[in-house]
Inverse folding.
């Protein structure tokens, strides 16, 4: 199962069964492709990154913009960069204009893989504003690139991020909380670097392709063994 919410639900509905093997086993990430730069150039052109389909309302782009607008005046040089397969809807750009953020917000449409990796590697912080996520592969990719994450407690992130160590979790639809955490990571270079290093370690220890795949191999081996016994 991909996240703690799904794991808890599966355990509840199968509580009366004694022979069901239920485990948290999210997919992994290619840690050779998604890897950190020796030094992230976060000071030259600092930006907060979001990757996902902004035409999907479950990604809650309104929260993302509201949090970004709330950054303190000392961080007005920080930009918001979004990237993904879907174009943001007209209502998104209308809100950007209404907030006076036209010069600080840009979108990268369907980036090539190499360009996407660069966007991750050079980001100051990765932000995920979703209302729900089965997992959040983009979180794994960002963390693999050594970038700390601020994400909503929407399912998938809850099982990935360790609060205050490799990122921050914030309540759903709470722009003040998201803005506060983004501001801390944009302001405190030492904390940002430390949490970015820990984010990479988290991925290497738990979500690298070979490690994540082992859980599935173990289950398949056990099923094959049972089949042979019968």
């Amino acid at each position: 199962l991909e996240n703690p919410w799904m794991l808890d639900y599966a355990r509840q509905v199968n509580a009366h069964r004694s022979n069901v093997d239920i485990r948290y086993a999210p997919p992994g990430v290619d840690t050779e492709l998604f890897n950190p730069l020796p030094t992230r150039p976060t000071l030259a052109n600092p930006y907060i990154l979001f990757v996902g389909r902004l035409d999907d309302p479950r990604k809650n782009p309104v929260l993302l913009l509201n949090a970004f607008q709330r950054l303190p005046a000392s961080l007005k040089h920080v930009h918001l960069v979004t990237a993904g397969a879907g174009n943001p809807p007209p209502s998104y750009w209308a809100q950007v204009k209404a907030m006076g953020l036209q010069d600080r917000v840009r979108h990268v449409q369907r980036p090539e893989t190499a360009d996407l990796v660069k966007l991750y590697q050079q980001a100051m912080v990765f932000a995920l504003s979703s209302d729900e996520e089965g997992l959040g592969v983009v979180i794994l990719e960002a963390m693999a690139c050594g970038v700390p994450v601020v994400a909503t407690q929407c399912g998938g992130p809850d099982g990935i991020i360790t609060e205050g160590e490799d990122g921050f979790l914030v309540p759903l639809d709470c722009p003040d909380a998201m803005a506060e955490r983004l501001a801390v990571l944009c302001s405190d270079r030492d904390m940002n670097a430390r949490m970015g290093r820990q984010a990479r370690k988290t991925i290497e220890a738990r979500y690298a392709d070979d490690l994540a795949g082992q859980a599935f191999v173990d289950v398949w081996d056990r099923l094959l063994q049972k089949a042979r016994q019968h």
User: Anything to note?
Assistant: Residues 163 and 169 are 6 Å apart (CA to CA).
